[in-house]
Automatic annotation (TrEMBL):
Name assigned to this protein: DUF3624 domain-containing protein
InterPro entries: DUF3624
Keyword Transmembrane appears in the UniProt entry: yes
Classification of source organism: Bacteria, Pseudomonadati, Pseudomonadota, Gammaproteobacteria, Vibrionales
One Pfam family it belongs to: DUF3624
Domain of life: Bacteria
Membrane-spanning intervals of the chain: 21-40, 46-69
Keywords, comma-separated and alphabetical: Membrane, Transmembrane, Transmembrane helix
Length: 85
């Protein structure tokens, strides 16, 4: 990624700070689930279906972590840091 936050080395410093990452994860998640629903819903035990399920869940989990950090952890951290000053 080209943004400053995504150029960080540590994984937890990247989460919840990059809107581009969240947009990409949202798009990938929607694409994975639509493709699975249209082409693989009838054969959930096929290798393609299982791969799309894993990809969809992985995108959803990473997107959830981004959103959790952005809307819960970082605001609480900012409020906590502001109280100490």
């Amino acid at each position: 990624m080209a943004c400053r936050d995504c150029s960080e080395n540590w994984f937890w410093k990247k989460l919840g700070r990059c809107k581009r990452c969240m947009d990409q994860l949202t798009s990938l998640s929607v694409i994975c689930w639509v493709v699975w629903f249209v082409w693989f819903k009838e054969t959930p035990s096929s290798i393609g279906s299982i791969a799309l399920l894993f990809a969809g869940f992985a995108c959803n989990v990473l997107l959830f972590l981004h959103l959790w950090m952005k809307f819960v952890v970082l605001p609480l951290k900012k409020r906590h840091d502001g109280d100490q000053q």
